[in-house]
Every structure is written in C-alpha cells, then in structure tokens.
Specification:
The complex is a heterodimer of chains A (about 120) and B (about 110).
Chain A (H helix, E strand, L loop, with lengths): L2 E5 L3 E2 L5 E8 L8 E6 L5 E7 L6 E3 L7 E6 L4 E6 L8 E8 L10 E4 L3 E5 L2
Parallel strand pairs in A: 2-11
Antiparallel strand pairs in A: 1-3, 3-8, 4-5, 4-9, 5-6, 7-8, 9-10, 9-11
Chain B lengths: L3 E4 L2 E4 L5 E7 L7 E6 L6 E5 L3 E2 L7 E6 L2 E6 L9 E6 L6 E2 L3 E5 L1
Parallel strand pairs in B: 2-11
Antiparallel strand pairs in B: 1-3, 3-8, 4-5, 4-9, 5-6, 7-8, 9-10, 9-11
C-alpha cells in the first residue's frame, strides 16, 4: 500500500528551527516530484514548497523562501523540509504529497498525501 | 500570483441533492485546475485534475468542467460521505495556489 508518513513536528520558539521528514513506502519515490502543503488550524490549504524527482529543481512560496529548504534522499525514500527562522505564522499541520505524474514530468497535482505533522511556533 | 475564489463558502444540502461548486481564477489557468476533498481530521484527496478528469477511484457522481477562469465541480447526487470541504488548486503558474474552500454540509 502506498503511504507517506510525516514526522518531526514539534513546539518551537520564534526564530528556531525544525526539520520535517516524510517517509514514503509502496511507491517508487524517485519517480515522483514531491510537495509540502500546510494548513493552519481551522484554515485552508497553503502550498509551501515542491521538488522534482531528482531533486534538481525546487520551488518555494514567497512566505518561506530563504527560510525553508526542501530536499530529498531518494536512496532513503525520504523527503525533508528544513525550517529555519520560524515565525508564529508558520504554525500549521504540514503535509507531504506526491505528484500524480512520473518523472521527467511533474503535473503538480497531488494524488497521495500523508496525515501531516504539527508544527507549533510559540514563545 | 493567481488568486482562486470559491463560492459559495458554505453549501447546505440534503443527501441525494445535486451540489454545484464554483472556482474562479484571477487570470486564465487554461484547464490546469484540480479539485480536492477534505474531511475533518483527514488529508485532502484528489478528485479531479485538468478541470474535468476524474482521479483514480473517484466515483462517477463527481464531475468537473470549465476552462480559462471559471470552473465547476458537480456532485450529481450527494452521498452521506460527500459532506466535506472542497478546494480547487491551479498549477498553471507558480506559485501553486489553492482556493479558500467550500464546505458542503448537511441541511
């Protein structure tokens, strides 16, 4: 069964750092672009960052560019999100999601999601 | 950035009724639009991509239409499990953006 499992969410102070992980199973991880999407409590979905299957290209929302870094280790079937200079407004449930298409294409439609990991930024 | 506007914010209907949800883009996204369903405590699920193509395993009662700036998700006859929040998402131009969602609740 295809599955994505996020981890690493925690309580962090403003200005602090966290690294989120997303472990993939049941899929050929390197064949798919991957995306992080977040959802603040009681709010809608917000795209955060995306990365191509080989990790050669990345894309960021303006709200996180320069603070967050998306990366992947295809040998470990794992996606990462390094989050630095955290702000209160980064508080959210962070989902990782798989692209619907196979490399070299990326359609940026998300057909498999994890259950999310909660990041809380507060002093 | 392309802004997606969804209407109505809330749709109150009974099981068996037809649901029509709207998503409007601030500029053309051609047909590069998807719809997701999210139930409380669950991750979103892809329903429709490229405006009108059903994702794998999605029942035929879900259909999408539209192009350019105006899109519609139709649920032909609501089942109890369809009461949820629905989001549209565009992939035409970076950044990827989502609409604010339409909540379909039980009347």
């Amino acid at each position: 069964e295809a599955q994505l499992v996020e981890s690493g969410g925690d309580l962090a102070q403003p200005g602090g750092s966290l690294r989120l992980s997303c472990a993939a199973s049941g899929i050929t991880f390197s064949n798919h672009a991957m995306t992080w999407v977040r959802q603040a409590p009681g709010k809608g979905l917000e795209w955060v960052a995306s990365i191509y299957g080989l990790g050669d290209s990345t894309f960021y929302a303006d709200s996180v560019r320069g603070r967050f870094t998306v990366s992947r280790d295809n040998s470990e079937n794992t996606l990462y999100l390094q989050m630095n200079s955290l702000r209160v407004e980064d508080t959210a449930l962070y989902y990782c999601a798989k692209d619907q298409q196979l490399v070299p294409l990326a359609y940026w439609y998300l057909d498999l999601w994890g259950r999310g990991t909660l990041v809380t930024v507060s002093s | 950035e392309i802004v997606l506007t969804q209407s109505p914010a809330t749709l109150s209907l009974s099981p068996g009724e037809r649901a029509t949800l709207s998503c409007r883009a601030s500029q053309s996204v051609t047909y590069y639009l998807a719809w997701y369903q999210q139930k409380p405590g669950q991750a979103p699920r892809l329903l429709i991509y490229d405006a009108s193509s059903r994702a794998t395993g999605i029942p035929a009662r879900f259909s999408g239409s539209g192009s350019g700036t105006d899109f519609t998700l139709t649920i032909s006859s609501l089942e109890p499990e369809d009461f949820a929040v629905y989001y549209c998402q565009q992939r035409a131009i970076w950044p990827l953006t989502f609409g604010p969602g339409t909540k379909v609740d039980i009347k």
